[in-house]
Write the structure tokens for this entry.
Amino acid sequence: MNNFLFNSSKWLDLIEEMHESKIEFLNVNNSKVPFLNHEDFISKRAISLPNSDFTIFLDEREKLQISDLSNKNQKILKIISNQKIELKYFHILKDKYYYLSFESYDEFIKNCNKNFKRNLKKNSQIYQTQDLDTFYDFYFTSRIKNFNRIPYPKKYFYLLKKYFKDHLIIYKNFQDNELLSITIFLEFEKNIYYIAAATNKNKKKPCSHKPFSEIVKYAESRGIKTIMLGRGADMFKESLGAKYYHYSQISIKKDNYFVEFKKVLAEYLISIYLKFFLKYGIGKSIYEKIYKLCK
């Protein structure tokens, strides 16, 4: 998949500007795997690109060969492959990367499960917008208060607009004048990618069904037949009739108990920061610096 968004030159430029760091490449047979060198008080690390679901599709005929990255406490590579990856002395986290493939909107609806179809019938109004300010305010609050997660910095979304401009598709979803969700997709090289969403987590008012229905209609109008959905939220994505590739996160660690201690300590302090400070609007000035520890 040479036209894949996360391997494109535009995406690599965006990541370099976002993280103010030069991307390097690791040779994996005939492919080049992009990564960043990252250093903080925890350790020196070589990591797959942040703000990306993974770095590469590995061809089924290729075997994974990872050359040594010297002077690093940890290396983390994220690989998509339909082959089973087994490496000795490596920690491999297996997961799924979802994609939605369809010929028409009618076929998409036919393949959705009953729960999705039922929620789609519930009354809500959906609008297309380019308003990133409203999205980010809603996203920032939703990510912290509803999910206790560090959100991407505002800079990330404005770089998306800088590099991809009119190819961003943003949907606002309302019910009874209440904002239920804002969802961002990106059109790139005859595919559509799910980028991010903010929801109010109201279980009585389904937030995510209408935007995904609308993006399929949009895709059909553009002659696009694949939507890349990313990883996570398995049950929801399977309710759409989505398929998946195998996903492996390969972690190569050197035994260093002091590094592990600092990592655990940082995770604990960040959880406190989220729950008791950022949730109440305290400490926003250091937020982007904290984010870089969570890559």
Notes: The chain has nine helices and twelve strands.
